[in-house]
């Protein structure tokens, strides 16, 4: 997939990656998108939508623990970034469906690979937490 190189004000001139965007630069627009994708609700919403199209309340039930307000804000941000498509059906009562765009599907697939990796290594993580807490006398977080 080709991308068009763009100049990003304040992105820094010492970027060694050769990319037009630098998420480590304060003013780079990619930073906001990374936050939307990797934040708790963004990641879970993208992962859920990878399973297919959902109505708002179906998606809210699938993403256990998200409030209506947070899901709404998350969906708006992901839609603005071009990752989620919102389709309002002219029915009574109104019906709104959410699904991933092709770009959103690509992002979700990469994110799900990370999620599956973390889930597969949770025994190691839990052991490490136990050792950490034991040596530092800290309560489990």
Number of strands: 3
Strand order of the largest sheet: 1-3-2
Elements, N to C (H/E):
HHEHHEEHH
- Spatial shape: globular
Strand count, sense and barrel status of the largest sheet are: 3 strands, antiparallel
Residue share in β-strands: 5-15%
Structural class: mainly alpha
**How many alpha or pi helices?**
6
Q: What are the low-pLDDT stretches, counting only 5+ consecutive residues below 50?
A: 1-16
Protein architecture, described:
- By secondary structure, this protein is mostly helical.
- It is 52% helix and 10% strand.
- The radius of gyration is 19 Å and the shape is globular.
- The termini are far apart.
Secondary structure: elements and pairs:
Elements: H1 30-38, H2 40-49, E1 54-55, H3 56-62, H4 68-80, E2 84-89, E3 95-100, H5 102-120, H6 122-136
Any key phrases for this structure?
disordered N terminus, 52% helix, single chain, globular, 141 residues, mainly alpha, three-stranded antiparallel beta sheet
Summarize it.
By secondary structure, this protein is mainly alpha-helical. The protein is 52% helix and 10% strand.
